Amino acid sequence: MQFSDFGLDPRLMSTIEHLGFTEPTEIQQYAIPAAMKGHDLIASSKTGSGKTLAFLLPAMQRLAKNRALSKRDPRVVILTPTRELAKQVFAQLRLLTSNSQFKAVLILGGENFNDQVKVLEKDPHFIVATPGRLADHLTQGHFHLNGLELLILDEADRMLDLGFSKQLEQINKAADHRKRQTLLFSATLDHAQVNEFATELLKKPKRIAVEAGHTEHVDITKRFYLADNLTQKEALLHHFLTSEKSQQIIIFTATRSDTDRLAKMLTDTDLNAVALSGELNQGQRNQIMDSFAKGQHKILVTTDLASRGLDLINVSHVINFDMPKHTEEFVHRIGRTGRAGTKGDAISLVGPNDWLSFKNIEAFLQQKISFTSVEGIKVKFQGLKPKKAKVVKAKPDTVKSKKAVDSRPRKVIKKTFLDNDDAGAMKIIKRKKPLTPQQIEDSTKKEQD
Ligand code: ADP
Ligand code: MG
Known about the structure:
By secondary structure, the protein is α/β, with parallel strands linked by helices. It has two domains: 3-210, Rossmann fold (3-Layer(aba) Sandwich); 220-365, Rossmann fold, CATH 3.40.50.300. The chain contains 17 helices and 13 strands. It has helices spanning 10-19, 26-36, 51-65, 83-97, 113-121, 131-139, 156-161, 165-174, 192-201, 230-243, 256-268, 282-293, 327-334, 355-365, 399-406, 426-430, 437-445; strands at 41-45, 76-79, 104-107, 126-129, 150-154, 181-186, 206-210, 220-226, 248-252, 273-276, 299-302, 315-320, 344-350. The strands form two sheets. Strands 3-4-2-5-6-1-7 form a seven-stranded parallel beta sheet, with helices on both faces. Strands 8-13-12-9-11-10 form a six-stranded parallel beta sheet, with helices on both faces. Strand 3 (104-107), helix 5 (113-121) and strand 4 (126-129) form a beta-alpha-beta unit. Helix 2 (26-36) packs parallel to helix 3, helix 3 crosses helix 4 and helix 6 packs across helix 8. The longest helix has 15 residues, at 51-65.
């Protein structure tokens, strides 16, 4: 199949040819015609498989073919969970609009509010934005969405994870008319919250799933290593960084303070590393991403802030220094390599405090994962045994038997590792209950907008 088979506007076709795209990827083959027919879509495909063009091309086509519903309102709004991803989508959109009369603007959290008001006054056709800031402008009446034709949510599940459902509902309500089309894209769209949300936002959506979610990504080689503690994780990391043939590397850690500490440790050993975290100001974030994209740094140490969508073609390795708490983020983190048909390596370090996350990931991927070891690094930790369910033999309705149950000695789990030495999910092991989605949001939202 060729792009010319879609019946796209000739000017758009010449732009595609000019950009050097010849054959549509599989998700593009399915999603572009379905979106062009006007269907709402819940579309998922593996990381790096070209989802951005799969929604940008039908959006461009719709604007070229249909008359605008309003002269002033934006016609297409594209939302993403992070500023970095919004910038990337915007850059790709600009390539497509360069040969057209359509104006596109970027509205991000952390940037000057009044400058954005001026930009919105120019009545752009496209807005690419992070949801929090766009919702603020909407509340203040800086633009209206009565004429919106297409609402696109890239990495829709992550926006919900981060607690943006209110803002998304507000944007949805402001553009609530019969002619509006809505497209949801991600590599992971099967969880219940997405379905619930889709029922509210989408009209008779078509589901398109191409090798998404837990499906094996054949271009990414996954390796898992056990580690007793932080010191061993650092030794393993040092081993990989000095022995593996690599281009650029992204290292994911659990927290912001870990990114800084680890990046400093690496630069101290003369490795060219830089840390990206949500607490930096936008100027610093931009500068770090730009210099990493240009290849000025070999290693980017970051959190799940960078797990979604970023398309950095020279990333040969992803290293999970800590396992992600949100199971889906594993798929997205490792998807920063192996993009557009290239090969990549994903290395994951699993310490005692990562074990719970690891088991969840193993279940999500629906495969039994085995561990690799490194010569010279002796690891005692072999995983945690699942807790056995308590068998209560005494009759529950007598005082005596209750006492008998309560007074049994507590089982003491002997630990052969030091909790505090591990940079993994210290909190999880100490908590009695697992974190609620709200608590996870609260802890990760600060990273975002
Ligand atoms: P996803 O959103 O699925 O993770 P992206 O849209 O970021 O993937 O695309 C990944 C890479 O593939 C980008 O560098 C993009 O330019 C490239 N790409 C997209 N479509 C095609 C195509 N039809 N042929 C070749 N490369 C493509
Ligand atoms: Mg994407």
